[in-house]
């Protein structure tokens, strides 16, 4: 297993309209072999991060490791922790969102938690810090649905800063443009597929998010 710190703006694997400059391209160049469980377009990819989300990702170097990690993710024995800055004052200091996520029939590029149907999804959060117009959250997910954290937080009425797709404003008065979504994969805890030992990998908050946060103080 390899742990990487994905930068914001990089697409994980090739898809509609994106063929080059992907994380997979870089991984294939870096490692001699990767797992093939996910298919030839997604070597080594056990889970994904959205294009404008940064932080820790795990990559499987062989098929056995891939299956082991996938079982941990689906069985919820691993732990994924994110940092998210959201608009507004989140009322409760901690909470749990359980709402199924489906493709938005009105805008196909979006997902939605407002239809009452779709794939089950679980998101838990706790408040780390409160600002004048924002709240910094630590978020843990029990499932890995497309855009899950962004969809669930927006459904609460607190879109992630910079996330215009889910309702965040393009510009915040008195602040420079963010240029990305303020969502960062901070930490993953899992069992090493080789020996079963617990492993924790972390990625510090990127400088651009750290600086934007400092500007709120």
In words, what does this structure look like?
A hairpin with a 7-residue loop joins strand 5 and strand 6. The strands form two sheets. Strands 1, 2, 3, 4, 7, 8, 9 and 10 form an eight-stranded mixed sheet that branches. The chain has four helices and ten strands, in the order E-H-E-H-E-E-E-E-E-E-H-E-E-H. With 217 residues, the protein is α+β, with helices and mostly antiparallel strands.
Draw up the topology in text.
Elements: E1 2-6, H1 23-30, E2 54-59, H2 63-74, E3 79-87, E4 94-98, E5 102-103, E6 111-112, E7 122-130, E8 134-141, H3 148-155, E9 183-191, E10 198-202, H4 207-214
Parallel strand pairs: 2-9
Antiparallel strand pairs: 1-2, 3-8, 3-9, 4-7, 5-6, 7-8, 9-10
The chain-level structural class is alpha+beta
* Proportion of residues in extended strands: 25-35%
Number of strands: 10
Largest sheet: 8 strands, mixed
Give the CA-CA distance, first to last residue. Answer: 38 Å
Helical residue percent? 10-25%
Low-confidence segments, given as residue ranges, are none
Approximate shape:
globular
Provide the succession of SSEs: EHEHEEEEEEHEEH
Rg over CA atoms, rounded to whole Å, is 17 Å
Enumerate how many helices there are, as a single number: 4
Average pLDDT reading: 90
